Amino acid sequence: MSKKPLILGIETSCDETAASLITENEQGIPVVLSNIVSSQIDVHKEYGGVVPELAARSHIEKIDLIVKKAINESGKRIDEIDAVASTAGPGLIVCLSVGLSFGKAFALAIKKPFIAVNHLEGHALSPKLNSNLNYPYLLLLISGGHSQYLNVQGIEKYKRLGTTIDDALGEAFDKTAKVLGIEFPGGPQIEILAKKGDPKKYILPKPILNKGGCNLSFAGLKTSVLKIAKTIKSEQEKFDLAASFQNTIEEILYKKTKFAFNEFEKQNNLNKKVFVVAGGVAANKKIRSMLIKLCKENNYESIFPPIELCGDNAAMIAMVGLEKFKLKKFNNLDHPAIPRWALDENAIFLKGAGVKL
Ligand code: KG4
Ligand code: ZN
């Protein structure tokens, strides 16, 4: 029996300090041995958003302990680790630098290879931690900083089919929560409030719904929610606005995902059609069930990471590390932190005023 790779993953790109050890079983299926995530919600709550300097300080304070805990919980020894994978970008540079430097130093100390990981690739590969997933697949990545449809053809091989031209979907959830007076981070709360409201009460805009292929836009929707929120007088109206927002997002994603299916099928010769949804917003149960229904209607297999692996974590970073380790794709110890790092580096920049769709 050959030794299976044991990978330490480290994640500090934003406000979660995380470390994880993963390996694979005899059948080559990944196995998560430990997955420690320390969130900084309490640090940032009073500011209503992530404060980079405070986030970095908190990563520095906790990183040793979190990595130690991940190693202890895995039941493995340090000298059994085969490679160290750290997030190198995209993210807040002061935060990235903590996990990146720690990972490099750790790899150097144990004399094992170092792997620099794109955080978005971590999300993209996160469903591999609980399902048998082969390339190519269509990915909808919906997080706090990104909203994209990607044709995933292999490790480091991504073709962007569509992206948001303004706000990310998670950002739209968080801003809606904020105007409804919900404490940071409010995104997940919207789904809960929405259950008590009337989804048809407010007619909200669906920007670029019928143009721009599977590109997305949420800024106009956010502005409209803000205007209505100022007129709200009762708790029930608050629930109705949350429900109307949630419903509008579902309608936008339903239509845009259909465009993405078309694009994906044009670009690939497929025996099997697979649709993967990842990133923090993939934890939204109503969005999940709507997309599962859409997949059934269009003969797609739908795959989601487990809820606890939708948000930021280090198991997904170790997952990319595992694939790269097997391909011997290692990085030098002078690898920089990369605050802006697209998965498809050939895709054109589609943000801001004057964007033509
Ligand atoms: O992937 P993630 O943990 O961090 C980034 O890389 O951005 O995503 C965080 C985002 C936040 O905007 C959060 O509000 C959103 O995911 N989110 C949700 C839900 N759970 C997390 N949005 C809607 N419904 C949820 N249940
Ligand atoms: Zn993320």
Helix content: 25-40%
Query: Helix count?
Result: 10
Mind telling me the CATH superfamily name of the largest domain? Answer: ATPase, nucleotide binding domain
CATH topological fold name of the largest domain: Nucleotidyltransferase, domain 5
Biggest sheet statistics: 5 strands, mixed
H/E element sequence: EEEHHEHEHEEEHHHHEHEH
Structural class comes to: alpha/beta
Mean pLDDT: 95
Query: What amount of the residues lies in strands?
Result: 15-25%
Q: What is the CATH C-level name of the largest domain?
A: Alpha Beta
The count of strands amounts to 10
Distance between the termini: 54 Å
Low-confidence stretches: none
What does this structure look like?
By secondary structure, this protein is α/β, with parallel strands linked by helices. The protein has 2 domains: 7-128 and 309-326, 2-Layer Sandwich (Nucleotidyltransferase, domain 5), CATH 3.30.420.40; 134-304, ATPase, nucleotide binding domain (Nucleotidyltransferase, domain 5), CATH 3.30.420.40. Helices cover 39% and strands 18% of the residues. The chain has helices at residues 41-44, 52-74, 93-110, 119-125, 169-179, 187-194, 219-229, 235-267, 285-297, 315-326; strands spanning 7-11, 16-24, 30-39, 83-89, 114-118, 137-142, 147-154, 157-163, 274-278, 301-303. The strands form 2 sheets. Strands 3-2-1-4-5 form a 5-stranded mixed sheet, sandwiched between helices. The chain has a 5-stranded mixed sheet with strand order 8-7-6-9-10. Zinc ion is lined by residues 119, 123, 143, 312. 5'-O-[(R)-(carboxyoxy)(hydroxy)phosphoryl]adenosine binds next to helix 5 and helix 6.
